[in-house]
Specification:
Number of helices: 4
CATH class: Mainly Alpha
CATH architecture: Orthogonal Bundle
Number of domains: 1
Helix content: 40-55%
Distance between the termini: 20 Å
CATH superfamily: lambda repressor-like DNA-binding domains
Order of helices and strands: HHHH
CATH topology: 434 Repressor (Amino-terminal Domain)
Structural class: mainly alpha
Radius of gyration: 12 Å
Length: about 70
């Protein structure tokens, strides 16, 4: 099963009990961006993804793929 960053953010948002609208307001991100991210849009701005993650005290960092 593929687990996208959008699904992760959606799950974290739901854990906190926030609607998409509330999350957009608190994060300063647009509601359209939140919806598209959670729906798995293939191209999104990384700076906005990082901002969304920071709302839940997460960050991204490069990790070497261990596949051969």
């Amino acid at each position: 099963m593929e687990y996208s960053i959008g699904k992760f953010i959606k799950a974290e948002r739901r854990k906190t009990g926030l609607t998409q609208e509330e999350f957009a307001l608190r994060s300063g991100l647009g509601l359209r961006f939140i919806r598209e991210l959670e729906q798995g849009k293939k191209t999104v701005r990384l700076d906005k993804v990082l901002e969304a993650l920071s709302m839940f005290d997460y960050h991204l960092e490069p990790v070497k793929d261990k596949r051969p």
